[in-house]
Design goal:
By secondary structure, the chain is mostly helical. Helices cover about 75% and strands about 0% of the residues. It is globular and about 50 Å long. Keywords: Cell membrane, Cobalamin biosynthesis, Magnesium, Membrane, Transferase, Transmembrane, Transmembrane helix.
Length: about 250
């Protein structure tokens, strides 16, 4: 529970208060990133279901997307924009890392962020026009699997930036494989629960394959350009995996 609260505090804007804090907890809490993702997805699903009773599907989809962004403070969206600003052009590693630290947004980042928002809203709108169960499951799975994909990248790569100047230094240290195993376990529990609820297994399988593919592609990209992951790179991984899972669910309708 303590590590889950640390993960919740790190990934969301929820007012989590703790009496004390140890740096090692931030490293170990990554095992619960998918569980936090499930919570964020559940909030988005609740807004989608409620809003669809009052407005057309596309408005409900935008409101659901806005709710998840408000809950996380645009944490992952910021990483997506910074990553594409840094790696969208052909610049040396040191220059790319410097661009990632720049708070200003450039053309590559703006394009990536705009397309991400547009695509996620469109996919949710399509799902919301069908039986609502598919849209609810898609939100839960996409947010859960996407954060597991980010954990997978963390475990499989060293930190690619300057450890001494990392914003969350404990996350720049090696992540134990057991944390990835526990993160995967949360994904398995969600899949089992949704399967018992009646979600077709092929959708879960397609969603899993989509998240794994994005994790592998991001791992290769970050390894080649930065020789490791960064916090912004993990945010980009989450966003792209989220889109990929929603695409998989929509294709399987």
């Amino acid at each position: 529970m303590r590590l889950f609260l640390v993960a919740l505090q790190f990934l969301t804007r929820l007012p989590v208060r703790m009496n004390r804090f140890e740096a090692a907890w931030l490293n170990d809490c990554v095992r619960h990133f998918p569980l936090v993702g499930a919570l964020v997805g559940a909030v988005g699903a609740a807004v989608l279901v409620g809003a669809s009773q009052l407005w057309p599907a596309w408005i409900a989809a935008v409101l659901a997307l806005a709710a998840t962004i408000a809950l996380t403070g645009g944490f992952h969206e910021d990483g997506l924009a910074d990553t594409f600003d840094a790696l969208g052009g052909v610049v040396p590693r040191d220059k790319a890392l410097a661009i990632m630290k720049d708070s200003r947004i450039g053309s590559y980042g703006a394009l990536a962020l705009g397309l991400s928002l547009l695509l996620r809203a469109a996919l949710l709108a399509v799902l919301a026009e069908r039986p609502m169960g598919a849209a609810v499951a898609a939100l839960l799975v996409s947010h859960t699997f996407a954060r597991a994909a980010a954990v997978g990248v963390m475990v499989s790569l060293p930190y690619g930036g300057d450890v001494d100047h990392a914003k969350a230094k404990p996350l720049a240290l090696a992540v134990a494989p057991r944390n990835a195993a526990i993160a995967l376990g949360w994904c398995g529990l969600l899949a089992l629960g949704l399967g018992m609820w009646g979600l077709p297994p092929q959708r879960l399988l397609l969603g899993l394959l989509a998240a794994v593919l994005v994790a592998w592609m991001m791992r290769q990209w970050l390894k080649r350009r930065l020789r490791g992951y960064t916090g912004d790179g993990l945010g980009a991984t989450e966003q792209l995996a989220e889109i990929a899972v929603l695409l998989a669910f929509t294709a399987a309708l």
